[in-house]
Amino acid sequence: xxxxxxxxxxxxxxxxxxxxxxxxxxxxxxxxxxxxxxxxxxxxxxxxxxxxxxxxxxxxxxxxxxxxxxxxxxxxxxxxxxxxxxxxxxxxxxxxxxxxxxxxxxxxxxxxxxxxxxxxxxxxxxxxxxxxxxxxxx
Amino acid sequence: xxxxxxxxxxxxxxxxxxxxxxxxxxxxxxxxxxxxxxxxxxxxxxxxxxxxxxxxxxxxxxxxxxxxxxxxxxxxxxxxxxxxxxxxxxxxxxxxxxxxxxxxxxxxxxxxxxxxxxxxxxxxxxxxxxxxxxxxxxxxxxxxxxxxxxxxxxxxxxxxxxxxxxxxxxxxxxxxxxxxxxxxxxxxxxxxxxxxxxxxxxxxxxxxxxxxxxxxxxxxxxxxxxxxxxxxxxxxxxxxxxxxxxxxxxxxxxxxxxxxxxxxxxxxxxxxxxxxxxxxxxxxxxxxxxxxxxxxxxxxxx
Lengths: 138, 302
Description:
Chain A is mainly alpha-helical. Chain A contains 5 helices and 2 strands; from the N terminus they run H-H-H-E-E-H-H. Chain A is globular. In chain B, strand 8 and strand 9 (214-220) form a beta hairpin.
């Protein structure tokens, strides 16, 4: 996968890596079992400190997005195989949703519009996944 | 992390040349495993500070400690655990690259031959070449190889990329620091002084800006980019009397306003939004922009 680092976004660089892997895994452009680049090659390619890449990988592992196999590297985990219990996963998502709901309030987006938008975004993600799965089996 | 002995600790360091205070009350602290930037303009006191760490100069006042040791009293203990690449590298001109590296290795208890081999081939250096025939870039490459092969706990680089062409710069700093830190990341510390900050943007974990011998700003790089934001706003009519909370005004022309905020972006944004701007954008400053913004006199245009 290709990473894009933007030093002007104000978001911590390791967090940008975390977010991009999560988006790619959710959209299916990174499939379960696929390897991530090694820490040093990726650090060199992106001209980053290896500490930054290592921190991103640790965070992804803590969140259950990837798993490290000793001596082999890091791999995308099967999302159907989350290490967290269902109630924990719901709680994690609720925290993120709270932020978005507050954001919606300030942008004067109504509950109905918000829910419709959420539907649209789910559709968009599923479309991406469908495209990714057809292109990966040529 | 904080209970570890800092790799470098400088307290109220003063170094005077005649009547000039080259370093004038500097403080900084580098924790193990970090890639630490030491940013300043030419003549700010960077090299003098580094020379105090290496016992090439004695401090006039204050303290410089490396690995918790006094470089003047425990010179061998300090120097055997670090490598230093000065801004101008000099080798014996009659030695070949091979002889130069062997000569450097003879002073060291450890030497990683695999690292040496990998970097020599990556840089396409001919080991039979005489040092006098090397370009400036190649000399720096040889110096960097010689610096990291002993696998020191601390790598001190003084303006490592100045005077080199941009392609060489981009490639090899990354390669060398990557190879160095790969071995034992938690213990391998880099201290790099430079005024070419954009080259090191992604590599730096933490930095100190030095100006006229004093530390003027020390921050974690991610925190810095989060804290310093450039805000651009455009209003339907010329705004007057907006409380900018001490932000630095870059441009205030008619309906346009461009400012740099430091840490209080939320309250400033709120004040700007209250004036119903047509557009309002924010972006983080790069480390180089933070450097420039910190060192420019705060004369604002507004």
